[in-house]
TrEMBL record:
GO terms, biological process: fucose metabolic process; glycoside catabolic process
GO cellular component terms attached to this protein's record: lysosome
Pfam families reported in the protein's UniProt record: Alpha_L_fucos
EC number: 3.2.1.51
Name of the protein in its database record: alpha-L-fucosidase
Function: Alpha-L-fucosidase is responsible for hydrolyzing the alpha-1,6-linked fucose joined to the reducing-end N-acetylglucosamine of the carbohydrate moieties of glycoproteins.
Domain of life: Bacteria
Family: Belongs to the glycosyl hydrolase 29 family.
Assigned keywords, A-Z: Glycosidase, Hydrolase, Signal
Domain Glycoside hydrolase family 29 N-terminal: 25-355
């Protein structure tokens, strides 16, 4: 008996090892590979959490504060000398993220202020040199991975601390008179800064296990005194990242537009595209990054917070146009999510508990399914199910144009309760329905389901 158990365990571990090996082989990124293949997990998962956390949580008035208020290095240094997030507990963050239905997380390893949230050996300007003294990145990565959440790194191309990064129009030390720039930049050497970036990226992409997404931020080539892809050696960065992490998914903010292999997805920020975005008339993978309140870093006095309802609609709408939502939280300088963020994440968690099948694995509905009034459609091509997100609950009837013969079964998603549907129109003196012969009418309960955004699930023929 004992022997059989040991043998079974041995067999099992062997099978697992094999499965793992296959997984690694399949993960090898090959430049001839269809881009959609190495992105299949990403287009399936749809929902990520952005985390903007750094020294700027202390001034608590936007992550660009150093530039906006033209602070000197010395002045900004006060935050580094005081940063001590005593309540930091990444397990707590990961738990909340998981509950909210998030499948991947993207963390600001270094933002524009140049401050590094890991123990980089290429700078002293880092978390381990604050009163907190400890690295925050490794524990964060571990905590999220333990919850089954994939890991992405945000890395700023801008650096308002590095002595070789040339002063430009975004820099805190940009002079009023741009003619002075030459003189100010004469001892700064971007080649050295490029090397610094590559060294740091190598650390980030070799010391933290598998990194699934790389969010580089950003190129501002247009207009005066900006920076372009050559300033970063963007091509070199893409090559390096693909070499070190073959499966990595890279955004389009390095400023490389010529070669489709240089980016995997586009990044509309803080706005909702009208339809699935295209590049050269081709629909492309896209991820919109959105804030709860307008600022990315923790902003104490920002009051334009989106409601839970708005955020859920945003998620559904993004998926209905074939995109991903990367929703941002800016933790405080104590190391916690503030109560307004927690309230929103809880709201999302409650909705996702019952409705995630209308998000994961879903995309835009085929055009043959017309979108009813006041609704959003998402569609799962694998299960052949259509999801009608009902923004305004109509009275008793939901009219579906040209759906005759297309529906096998209909139900409310929150409780799997059946919804009857018919094609025959009612004709009576007081209620004559003027629907077309191929239309379907779903009979709804008068009372709207008690969820933020009710969803009707159609199992299609
Ligand atoms: C912009 C901002 C930056 C923010 C980012 C998020 O590029 O400069 O502060 O981190 O967008 O996408």
């Amino acid at each position: 008996m004992k022997r059989t158990i040991i043998y079974t365990l041995f067999l099992l571990s062997f099978v697992c090892q094999q499965a793992n090996a296959t997984h690694i082989v399949q993960n090898q990124y090959d430049s001839s590979l269809n881009q959609s293949e190495h992105m299949s997990w990403w287009t399936h998962d749809r929902f990520g959490l952005f985390i903007h956390w750094g020294l700027y949580a202390m001034p608590a008035r936007h992550e660009w504060v150093k530039s906006r208020e033209k602070m000197s290095d010395e002045h900004y240094n006060r935050y580094k000398n005081l940063f001590n997030p005593d309540l930091y507990n990444p397990e707590e963050w990961a738990y909340m993220a998981k509950a909210a239905g998030v499948k991947y997380m993207v963390f600001t390893t270094k933002h524009h202020d140049g401050f590094c949230m890991w123990d980089s050996k290429y700078t002293d300007y880092k978390i381990t040199n604050t009163p907190y003294k400890k690295d925050v990145l490794k524990p964060l990565v571990n905590a999220f991975r333990n919850e089954g959440i994939r890991i992405g790194f945000y890395y700023s191309l801008l650096d308002w601390h590095h002595p070789d990064f040339t002063i430009d129009r975004n820099h805190p030390q940009m002079p009023q008179n741009p003619e002075l720039l030459k003189e100010l930049n004469k001892n700064r050497n971007m080649a050295k800064y490029r090397e610094y970036m590559k060294n740091q990226l190598t650390e980030l992409l070799t010391e933290f296990g598998q990194i699934d997404e790389l969010f580089m931020d950003y190129t501002y080539a247009e207009g005066e005194n900006g920076k372009n892809s050559k300033d970063w050696d963007a091509e070199g960065i893409v090559k390096l990242a693909r070499k070190l992490q073959p499966q990595i998914i890279i955004n389009n903010r390095l400023g490389l537009t010529e070669n489709r292999q240089d980016w995997d997805y586009i990044t509309p920020e803080q706005f909702m595209p009208q339809q699935w975005p295209t590049v050269n008339s081709q629909r492309v993978p896209w991820e919109t990054c959105q804030t709860f309140s307008g600022s990315w870093g923790y902003h104490r006095d920002e009051y334009s917070w989106k409601s839970v309802h708005q955020l859920i609609v945003m998620l559904a709408e993004t998926v209905s146009k074939g995109g991903n939502l990367l929703l941002n939280v800016g933790p405080t300088a104590r190391g916690v999510f503030d109560e307004r963020a927690i309230e929103r994440l809880n709201g999302l968690a409650h909705w996702m508990r019952f409705h995630s099948s209308a998000i994961y694995g879903c995309t835009a509905a085929p055009t043959e399914y017309a979108c009813p009034n006041n609704c959003i459609l998402t569609y799962n091509p694998n299960t052949n199910r259509l999801y009608i997100h009902v923004l305004e609950w109509p009275f008793k009837s939901l009219y579906l144009k040209q759906y005759k013969g297309k529906i096998k079964y209909a139900q409310l998603l929150n409780d799997n309760s059946e919804l009857k549907f018919r094609t025959e129109t009612k004709k009576g003196s007081h209620m004559t329905e003027n629907t077309g012969a191929d239309d379907v009418i779903i009979t709804l309960p008068v009372e709207r389901p008690n969820v933020e955004l009710p969803v009707i699930e159609l199992i299609l023929e």
